[in-house]
Structure formats: C-alpha cells, structure tokens
Amino acid sequence: MQGLMMQQSLLVSALLTHAERHHSEQEIVSRRVEGDVHRYSYRHLAQRARRMANALSTLGVARGERVATLAWNGYRHMELYFSVSGSGSVLHTLNPRLHVDQLAYIIEHAEDRVVFFDLTFLPLIESVAPQVKSPKIFVAMTDRAHMPQTSGMNAMLMCYEDLLDLHDDVFEWPVLDENSASSLCYTSGTTGNPKGVPYSHRSTVLHTYAAALPDSLNCSARDVILPVVPMFHVNAWGLPYVACMVGAKLVFPGPALDGKSLYELIETEHVTLSAGVPTVWQGLLTHVDAMGGTFSSMRRTVIGGAPCPTAMTEAFQQRHQVEVLHAWGMTELSPIGTVCSFKAHQQSLPMAEQYTIQAKQGRALFGIDMRIVGSDGNELPWDGESAGDLQVRGHWVTQQYFGADVESPLCDGWFPTGDIATIDPHGFMQITDRSKDVIKSGGEWISSAAIENVAYLHPEVSMAVCIAARHPKWDERPLLLVVKKPGSDLASDELLSFFNGRVARWWTPDAVVFVDTVPLGATGKVLKNQLRDQFGDYYLPA
Ligand code: AMP
C-alpha cells in the first residue's frame, strides 16, 4: 500500500500561514533602532511579509538567489525571514560583529543580490559596499523620515517602508522543493575563512518541531519568548520559527542587550522564556542582583553557545526560580543538538547531583544521533568518563558547505563537530573541550571547561578562561585567566587554593593571570586562540 497520507512539502512559509490563520492576534513586540517600541500582530507580520515578497520580485530577485540581512532582532527582520525564504530565495543572515574584510568576503562568496540593513550598521555598509561587486541594491530597514544621507556606496540605496508602500499584500507562497535552501549562515571562521551553511526548508521545519518539544525548549501558545540570541546567528536558535509554530508572543530586544534594558523588557512584556549565551546572562544577573530585583514572569532560560557555569545555573534557579535549560549546538546543526532536561528519576536527586547533571550539555533531540570516537576512529563507551571526538548526524546536520570550492565535511556519514565530549549511561553529553582548545599535560587530557566551572564558583570571579600554555616538562599545563569582580582584591594563591578538593590536584592550574577583559568573538564567545597567542609561553623560561 502506498500514498495513504497526503504529501506536503515542509516549507518555511507554512509556519507563517499557520500563525496568521490560528494565532492572528498574537503580539510581536520590538524595540527599534529608531528608539521606540513597536507592536503588531502575526496578522500584520504575514501581510507585510507578502508585500515584501512582491517587492523582492519587482527588484528581480530570482528563486535560489541570496538576499542578505545585517540586522538586530526585530519585526522587519522577522518579515524578511518569511518573505525571502517563503518566496524561494535564500535568506543570508550576516553577522555585524565580523571584521569588514570578512563581511566583504562572505557577501561576495554568497553572491548576495540585495543587502537589507538596520540603521545602526550604516557605517559598516559604507565600508563594505565599495569592496563588493555582487549586491547592487542596499535597503535601509527604516521609514522615509529616518532615511540616512550617504554617498559613495557605489550602489542603489532604498528605503524598506517605501518598498512596502509600493506593493500590495496579494501574494501566493509558491510550493517549493522542501530540500531547496531557505537560509544561509556562515560559521564564525576562527580558523580560516568562514564557511556557509545552507539550511533547507525541510531541515528548518523539522528542527522547529524538535525545538518546541517539552524536553527541548518546551514552547507553547502561552509563552512570551524573548530571543536575545541574535537572528543573525543561526536563526536565533530557531525561535522565530518556533514562535510561529506554537503561536507564542514574541519580544525582540533590538540593539540594547545590556542587563538593565533586558530586565526592563522582560518585566514589562511578561517574558516567560528567553535564550542567549552566558556572557549576556552574566550582565543581566549582575544588574538584577545589584538592584535586589527578581523575575516576576520568566520561568525558563535557554543558555548555550558556550558552557553554562554551574554558578550561573544556581543563581537563576535558586535566587530567581528561573529554570536553566543548558543547550548545545552549532551553526552546522541549525543549531540545536542537545538540551539538558531531566529524566524522571533525576527529578528527586539531591540538589548538588542535579547541578552536576545540568553542567552537562544534555540529551540528543529526536532527529539527531551522536557518538564519541577515540583517536583510532572507534566508538567509545557511554560511561561518562571516556572522552572522544563528538560526531553527529541527522535531519538538520549539514552535509555540504555552500559553494563548489568546499569539500564535504563528513567522515563515514558523520559530521565531526570539533568538540571533545563524554556521554553518560543516561545519554547526557558533556563537552570537555574544543579539539583545538584541549590541554594535554604529560599525555593526559585536562578539561578546560571543568576548570572554568570551578573558578566561576568563586564569588569574586567575573570571567574565567582556561587555556593550554606550553610547559618545558609536561608539554602543556593549564593557565587560568581571570577578570575579577569590581572592587575585589582576590590574590592568585587564594584562588588556586579554592581548587583543592574540587578537581584532581594535577588539573589545578599552575598559575592565575588577572586581566581587565578577555577578547570576545563575533558570537560572544571567548577567543581562546588570541589568548593562547598572548599567554601561550607563560610557563617557558624567558
Ligand atoms: P557556533 O557554530 O559558532 O554556534 O559554535 C559552535 C560551538 O560552540 C560548538 O561546537 C561548541 O564548541 C560551542 N558550544 C555551543 N554550545 C555549547 C555549550 N552549551 N557548551 C559548550 N560549548 C558549546
């Protein structure tokens, strides 16, 4: 028997039509770069997305062509998510924190036809535009009253709201091949040039289903979701799509990502779920603790992109009754691979054991399979001890980077993540390092993540980074770089003795260096390679 069930392409546009039909009055709130707060509903989102789809067609953008955005989280960006992908072109989100040369490289490599940008990024666009040949049209995401004066861009500059005004909202979303590309995001390129990861309509919709499930991000029509994670970084972890699928209220923070601005937004809009990297949450917690506040509506926060220190989990859960969902993913995974939510028997464990579990990156979502392999290529046991190269495969894992000049990254059908991890008998994966960040002391591995985790337990530590420094006897030894909290006079001996009994003695760093800041990359992650260049010879004789 065949053909019993309907065959419908899994398409990004279907998420929007569903939201328009079933949640038309649900709200979308955005802090704008123009300085005010904007509110409308999914009905308006859908109407304006159709008008923009008509505009793209007038601009001559063909199916499969790339349309780039350089924008914060906001409603116009959301409209482009659907108008570009829904009409069959490819939404290419650009990361504004990249260097101008890297941005120019990416725009040329992707052959972007049009670049939409938020006003904040005008100076960046003015530097990039003369360096690129492909886009001939730049669109400022604003209205006529706020249009900037600019010259020398060597390309056409248009106004977003003018474009919308010229078009009506009658547009039928085409039925596309579900395996065609819907969006494109480049890796941050800490080694070599960034690589483009194209997501398909099918992979995006399947990722959306999986992300919304109770043991994933647990999203529903009763939620108010604040994606702090940028829409330019792997589609804000898929939350704009999830919100459409479940009909949640969406709150977009725009450019203000400091603790005070986020806290005000969370409270005034009654946010229930937020998502972001640990460095952003550090700012939020510092602000809330300093003012003696707490969260009246927020119940869950997704923390990922870098290890979530236990001290942060404790602060959210114990002081503020906000459940932490520690998640792991990467650009090549759309991005979510694992989420740390308890199994039934773990809910009654003592608090300390629960925190040990929550320091792990969690269990694979259905749709992702994972394994760890040793240096001989053989699979390692799930004993929570053996650490090996983490490999994944599944419906939303890339098998081919964008462009003909790039080789397939797969090994025997598995994607090598570059992360080193353990997996315990319950299937909880824990990242111990990036393969290039790993510390190898006397032939044995030391987990820099575990050392950072201990340092963060110290009340006077604001940021902690552990790197491998070359050592005359042991090859490498851990070196701890620390940013102290304001006003602290913490001494290195005191901090090192804090490690006694908390990690194996030989894992304790040989030294601590106090620094004022640590370099952060385009996605808010610590640039350990820069710190290794600066401090890598610390233990070698001068
Ligand atoms: P990106 O592709 O820029 O999103 O970076 C992906 C990489 O970030 C992963 O391969 C990990 O090394 C790291 N990463 C993401 N989430 C976590 C996490 N929860 N804990 C530790 N590392 C993480």
From TrEMBL:
EC assignment: 6.2.1.3
Keywords: Fatty acid metabolism, Ligase, Lipid metabolism
Positions of the AMP-binding enzyme C-terminal domain: 451-525
Domain of life assignment: Bacteria
UniProt key word Lipid metabolism: yes
Entry annotated with the keyword Transmembrane: no
Any Pfam family the entry gives: AMP-binding_C
EC class: ligase
CDD domains registered for this protein in UniProt: ttLC_FACS_AlkK_like
GO molecular function: long-chain fatty acid-CoA ligase activity
Residue ranges of domain AMP-dependent synthetase/ligase in the record: 18-402
Annotated family: Belongs to the ATP-dependent AMP-binding enzyme family.
Protein name according to UniProt: Long-chain-fatty-acid--CoA ligase
Record organism: Paraburkholderia sprentiae WSM5005
Organism classification: Bacteria, Pseudomonadati, Pseudomonadota, Betaproteobacteria, Burkholderiales
